[in-house]
């Protein structure tokens, strides 16, 4: 059975972009006679607050969406992400990184798909004694994937399956996770990362079809690699176009895009929003 999910982060109020993604997931699940899940991705405990969590559920219900209970809330499942990290540690595919962003930026000119400096591998070459001493002093550290070693474990090309909408036709897409470099899998300030937790959650929830924005398309290369390393089955992927202003700038919480909450207060109806978004 097809299983789809909408997975917002409660770090602000939902806007039309979120509504489009949620409606598209729900409509596709219905088309496939499948299940529609809601997941709250709140690993950023400094920005994700209960008020935004509650508003998210309220806005989605106002749009007429319903989902299965219980809702998976990431901050209630740290142990699942720690187990995945432990497995990668046992495979010697991750290493602790004590560097600061400023230190990395001062020595690295290459950028990853998100525009961040690619890590030069400084801590990968630290001695075991140095690492042990830093750990004993409880120095803040992240855990990074040793990309070169991870890729060396697999022969042949790495790829995933993309599906098209509305036809549901499938095509194979080459994955190039090396462009992420030694990416962070567990952050200094929280016991996971988006990349690690989304891979673990999709597997634990048996998600078969992932529909999300094009801004996450490059991350799929990395997610497919992590799934392969952890022995998990990869879902099919579809990355939809992002809603944007007339100037071409995408809708986002950081740009203070008008929220569904504001639109509702202005008297806009759910049907008007659905019509505007093509549903």
Task: Tell me what the structure shows.
There is one protein chain. With 279 residues, the protein is of the alpha/beta class. The protein folds into two domains: 1-76 and 244-279, 3-Layer(aba) Sandwich (Rossmann fold), CATH 3.40.50; 79-205 and 218-230, Rossmann fold. 37% of the residues lie in helices and 15% in strands. The protein contains ten helices and ten strands. It has a three-stranded parallel beta sheet with strand order 1-2-3. A three-stranded antiparallel beta sheet has the order 4-5-8. A two-stranded antiparallel ribbon has the order 6-7. Strand 9, helix 8 (217-230) and strand 10 form a beta-alpha-beta unit. The protein is globular.
Q: How is this fold's topology laid out?
A:
Elements: E1 3-6, H1 16-31, E2 35-40, H2 50-62, E3 72-73, H3 78-90, E4 94-97, H4 101-107, H5 128-136, E5 142-145, H6 147-152, E6 159-163, E7 170-174, E8 184-186, H7 194-204, E9 209-213, H8 217-230, E10 236-240, H9 260-265, H10 270-277
Helix pairs in contact: 7-8
């Amino acid at each position: 059975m097809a299983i789809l999910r909408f997975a917002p982060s409660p770090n602000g109020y939902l806007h039309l972009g979120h509504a489009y993604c949620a409606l598209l997931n729900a409509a596709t699940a219905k088309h496939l006679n499948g299940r529609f899940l809601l997941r709250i991705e709140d690993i950023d405990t400094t920005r994700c607050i209960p008020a935004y969590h509650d508003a998210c559920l309220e806005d989605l219900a106002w749009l007429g969406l319903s989902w299965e209970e219980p809702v998976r809330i990431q901050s209630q499942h740290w142990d699942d992400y720690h187990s995945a990290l432990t497995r990668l540690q046992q495979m010697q595919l991750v290493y602790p990184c004590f560097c600061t962003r400023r230190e990395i930026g001062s020595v690295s000119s290459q950028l990853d798909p998100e525009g961040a400096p690619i890590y030069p591998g400084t801590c990968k070459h630290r001695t075991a004694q140095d690492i042990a001493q830093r750990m004993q002093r409880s120095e803040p550290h992240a855990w990074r994937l040793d990309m070169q070693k991870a890729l060396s474990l697999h022969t042949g090309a790495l790829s995933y399956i993309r599906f098209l909408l509305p036809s549901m036709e499938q095509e194979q897409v080459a994955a190039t996770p090396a462009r992420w470099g030694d990416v962070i899998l567990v952050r200094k300030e929280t016991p996971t990362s988006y990349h690690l937790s989304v891979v673990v959650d999709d597997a634990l929830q048996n998600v078969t079809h992932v529909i999300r924005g094009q801004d996450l398309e490059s991350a799929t290369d990395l997610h497919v690699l992590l799934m392969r390393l952890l022995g998990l089955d990869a879902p099919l992927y579809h990355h939809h176009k992002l809603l944007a202003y007339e100037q071409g700038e995408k809708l986002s919480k950081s740009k203070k895009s008008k929220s569904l909450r504001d639109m509702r207060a202005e008297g806009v109806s759910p049907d008007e929003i659905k019509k505007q978004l093509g549903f």
